[in-house]
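Materials and Methods. Structural model of Sulfatase domain-containing protein. The 691-residue sequence of Sulfatase domain-containing protein from Bursaphelenchus okinawaensis was retrieved and submitted for structure prediction as follows.
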Amino acid sequence: MNILKFMKRNWLRVLYPSRWKPFLLILMCLSGSMIVYKSVIVSKSISTAINLSKQNYERFVNETSEGSTTPSTPKTTEKSQYSNLLENECRFPSLIPWEFDIQHLSPVAAPILCPKNMSNLATFDEDGYLLIHNDLDENFRRKSFKNVMCNVSKLVGGLRPNQKVALEIPMNLTLKMTSKTKINVDQFVVRCYDKLKENGTNIETEVLIYQRGFAGFANQETNKPTLAKANPKAPSLVVLVLDSTSRNQFLRHAPKSWSYMNQLGFMTLNGYTKVGDNSGVNLLPIVAGLTAETQVGEDGRGVLKKTEVPVQHEKYEHLWDLFKKRNCVTMINDDIMHPSRGLFAYHYHKGFAKPPTNYYFRPFEIFNVKQQVKPKLGECTVHGVPVMTQHFDLFEKFSRAYKDYCHFSFNFFTTLTHDHAYQLEAVDEQIRDILETFNALGVMNNTAVVIMGDHGNRIGGIQHTYTGRIEERAPLFSLYLPEEFKKAHPEFEKNFNFNANRLTSNYDIYRTLKEIALAGQEDKEASKYRGYNLFREQVPTNRKCSEAGIPENFCLCMQKDPLPKFNQTSKQYTLLKQRISSKLKEYGCINITNINFLEDILQTHSISDMARKGMRSPPANETQIPPRMFKEQRFIYTYITTTTTNEHPLRLMVEVKYYPKEEVMDVISTPILVTEDNKPIGISITDVCKN
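The predicted structure was written out as tokens:
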């Protein structure tokens, strides 16, 4: 009830306070009851969220464990082969996919259905033939074609940021209905006209009835004899970047793709953290090992000078340049969303003087977003085709067309997920289906596949939540390696899985993907770039964000953030003991009557105030350092001793997530063994109970 309205209605009691006291007491009691009630409801909601996440996560693991070479959370007693996140000095915040504070911001997204505004009169097939035909849809089927004629114009230009219009070069083609014509250009526009009589006259006017841009892979017959053959020991590489997609978001919104990726043996980095705010500053380090941002740590390797910005890409070597040196066919498939944007034509970038790869579809993209996408920045074209479908088609058809040849593609898709990451769910089945197609056709036999995000969601409402701040900084990175490649280099898979649970950044990704691009050749310029080759090197457990090139405002290594009165006599400590005892009981081999908690006062950890506030850049001075902020989630790392049911002594580290406002706790990871000085030894309680 609104207190002011209540007072207005009871103004006599306001004037006579003695009569007001009973009402005041009632109001206070009601308010207190509502607070308690709300707290109980929220606590139950968090518990429900935790249970829901566990159920879904266990379902994913159960569905994908059979035949999978890489479980979602590697568990092994061999420290040289795998690792554990808890071994790091950097304490990462652990999230469940369906955290309580984001549930209202993570709706279900159905597949996109687009209405169309004109007849579909043309089709461009995979063999490079343009077909002019009638529309099968009765609502758009034309009754007469006597006067219909179509022409074709090649699309070029638009390679620089200030070139916001694609140029059209007319081709000497006039096409009639039911014609089939070979088109030997990569991107073009088709326009069809009909001669219609004006009302009440015999005067005929030529009217545009159809226009559409197309993109494909021309001159394959000429290209293929010059290309290197597909080779699993020197594999092709395709990279799919989904804008604003964190690992946690992908788990939440693309469960079918995630499940199939695990079946195929994709390996996922769990400690991967972004190094910049938006797409360009995060992806330049990945494709070229460079950054235009302020230097973070080390000696300035890979940091461009102010005079080198905007970036003139022709001066630097990119991953696609390395593949071209191997006689591989290359493609950049960039969903620009707006004529003035695009990954390499926005912010720090200067675009290109000429197409950087064999297939570069920016002219098609500019025509599309200016002429075909309705409304502007929308997700549908006037032909009833989702924008994302066009990009996924190019992604899939490129690898299908060149599956027997060495190829490289870099695909960056932004329209669907840039503002609302949950919309990834609309293409979950499409991603899975493409991977199934690749697997069925043998593409995966000779091709390394990367599925990743540039960062998490940084635009939508979700990024203001505690969970959102973490997700924004922790993008997805998953890698598939062909089986023959892994057999030829068994240490590559072993080291990558080891590093999956270490603090990593974009610079490590570049060094690692460059290993694939070089096809076994020595990286003679390795000393020029920062980062670790995750195939050949093992990231140390004491790595800091500054050493990885991660600015302090994006760093997710948690800080000690103690709470008062968090000692053995507090109710929180009692709750902690209950949760840990309950968790250990689940393993069946632990003597829970013999648990000894080693600390008198519990230390809690939380993300930094800069991360919680969502700062886009590091503080320039002390005045920009945010004040201490409330942390909705905290993490406790406590040490206990106990024994197995066979009386073998155990010393364990247990990770507990604590929601202080709601007084909810949960053990969120498998406890691991530690030494007498509390150093993790890479053996989980699961391993102990198996032996």
